[in-house]
Write a structure and sequence with these properties.
The chain is mainly α. Helices cover 71% and strands 0% of the residues.
């Protein structure tokens, strides 16, 4: 009886959470895309008026800021290295996989947003072809933590896109009702995201604008994933028990990669 009662309470709680998530998602509208678009326009005009739309100038205009942030954050190499691993899509999503059966609407948005963000991240990186810091600056001028990345795939930051795609989905999914709690929750999510994305500058992998642009794009695809999830139902296979071993495997892989 006790076990059955616990199961009943658990099912009721999960149903209530899912209902809350669906209700939160229903409040979103296309107008939420206005702010990120304005921010992207502001960055474009900032680069335009500073004659920094060319790759060389784009790098040069951020040089001092990059060195400053890299020097400040690289004083904690192990911490920064561990933090930046959380921005890896496989690691981040694997830790959220334990909620897949109880918060299906969240996962619909995560899957849709993540697939779109991964595709556009690849396309944008090759379109802009901005060389990474290690390909431009002498390695003794800044700190590199972890693997040396020296390709021409700096803009936008893929880690930043991933982080803010996921955090945007979580931000609106679990948005509290009270105004004070909404503000606190939003600040917490934005602070966590900022810490994660700027760790990419700390490890010497990206320029500041790479992670800022990536974060804005991630927010856009997080919203896109939510709107898609609101319109379409979750695939049936996600609700089946056969997928549990696969989720456990993904979760373990994420843990190993993080370690």
């Amino acid at each position: 009886m006790l076990i059955e009662s616990i199961k009943t309470v658990d099912v009721s709680t999960n149903a209530a959470i899912n209902t809350k998530v669906i209700d939160n998602y229903s409040r979103l509208s296309p107008s939420f895309f206005l702010l990120p678009l304005l921010l992207l326009l502001a960055i474009f005009f900032f680069l335009f008026f500073n004659d920094a739309l060319q790759v060389d100038q784009y790098v040069l205009i951020q040089q001092n800021c990059f060195f400053y942030i890299n020097a400040a954050l690289s004083q904690f190499p192990q911490t920064i290295h561990n933090i930046t691993q959380l921005g890896d899509e496989l690691v981040f999503i694997s830790f959220l996989s334990v909620f897949i059966f109880h918060h299906s609407k969240v996962w619909e948005a995560l899957l849709s947003g993540s697939l779109l963000s991964a595709l556009f991240s690849f396309l944008l990186k090759h379109f802009f072809s901005v060389p990474r810091p290690a390909a431009v600056f002498d390695h003794d001028r800044f700190v590199i933590i972890g693997k040396v990345l020296s390709g021409s795939t700096s803009l936008p930051s893929g880690h930043s896109i991933t982080v803010f795609t996921i955090l945007t989905v979580l931000l609106f999914a679990y948005m509290p009702s009270k105004t004070f709690h909404k503000i606190a929750w939003s600040i917490l999510i934005i602070a966590a995201g900022t810490m994660l994305v700027f760790s990419r500058v700390g490890v010497g992998a990206h320029y500041p604008l790479d992670v800022i642009v990536g974060s804005i794009i991630g927010y856009v695809f997080g919203l896109t994933g939510i709107l898609i999830a609101r319109k379409y139902a979750v695939p049936n296979w996600m609700n089946g028990k056969k997928v549990i071993p696969f989720l456990i495997l993904v979760f373990l892989i994420g843990c190993i990669l993080l370690i």
